[in-house]
Amino acid sequence: MATRPEPRSDPQDDLSLPGWVYHDAEFFEAEKAAFLRKAPQVVCHVSEISQPGDWRKLDYLGESIIVIRGDDGTVRAFHNVCRHRGSRLVDGEGGCDRVLTCPYHGWSYGRDGALKGVPHREDYPVLDTHGLGLKPVPLEEWQGFYFVTLQEGAPSVAEMMAPYAEEIAPYRFAQMEPIGRVTLRPRRLNWKTIADNYSDALHIPVGHPGLTRLFGKSYGIEAGAHVDKMWGDLRDTPSANPSERAYQQFLPDAAHLPDSHKRKWIYFKLFPNVAFDIYPDQVDFMQFLPVSATETVIREISYALPDDRREMKAARYLNWRINRQVNAEDTELIARVQAGMESDAYEPGPLGRSEVCLRSFARRLREELPQARLPHPPGRND
């Protein structure tokens, strides 16, 4: 009896992506069309828009989105664009308004997005006020967090995170509140340079001595269909670093968590550009918001359950200090990578079998955009 031959593996599965995809403007436009516009982006938490008129804003891929609670209690998302002459309606990260009034000509919109007021109304005898409300944007609420997409077509956050729903349930995300404020950090980097680093476990013992002191060799890593996961267990051996040692000491018992997670750090990255870190004391969201082929804004904010214990306040401050150092280390490391990717001397390097997330990401990108298999941009023959 004839047997079916084993499928041949793709030789590019063992290679990283070519350098040109990290700085080519046309490839960036292709990414936007293929998946970046479909990617869910976190805007805010339910606690930040608890009252009618409360709104938060996100700027993404040249678009500006408002998420606002209406008088009926419903949360909606709209383009931050006046239907008259296209002016942005609101500035800043958030606020609370009875109506959204355009600063250009004074057109105003209700909390439900409906057009409410038009100065010089007599100038528009056939104005269709019902058809000129703010344009809606797809919105998803997941675990108390609101996500928007510019274009439908990607799995929901709930679908992407379904394999981990049971694990994250005890953290009670929906009951959290923001700690601190939204931070925006512009970087001269391709968004993938940042995303790759977030899923790269091999650089941790080399580039992050603090994390190595805290977690030793306990780091784990896995790649799912839509989500990468990394984790580590906090060591009991006191760190030589004062901030790290104090965090180990002051981190209080989180009674709502199972024993297995009371001293565990977990990292999730949703394809393509949203990540969040779950700690016993808080959760940090981070987005790699692409601006151009070589510009990205890193958007960050932290949330936590209300807890007035002095030990918890100390742990959260120390967590911030530790992660500021980690971010500073990563900033230098990935700037080096971006510079190398822009060199004509770079060719796709080998990926080890343990680099499961990087292999998964490269494979996904080649599936989405087959031109990523080429050694040079399409049309270049040398």
Automatic annotation (TrEMBL):
Keywords: 2Fe-2S, Dioxygenase, Iron, Iron-sulfur, Metal-binding, Oxidoreductase. SUPFAM superfamilies: Bet v1-like (SSF55961), ISP domain (SSF50022). Residues 41-148 form the Rieske domain. Pfam families: Rieske, Ring_hydroxyl_A. GO terms for molecular function: 2 iron, 2 sulfur cluster binding; dioxygenase activity; iron ion binding. InterPro entries: Rieske_2Fe-2S, Rieske_2Fe-2S_sf, Ring_hydroxy_dOase_asu_C_dom, Rng_hydr_dOase-A. Signal peptide: none annotated. CDD domains: RHO_alpha_C, Rieske_RO_Alpha_N. Its cofactor is Fe cation. PANTHER family: CHOLINE MONOOXYGENASE, CHLOROPLASTIC (PTHR43756). This is Aromatic ring-hydroxylating dioxygenase subunit alpha. It comes from Sphingomicrobium sediminis.
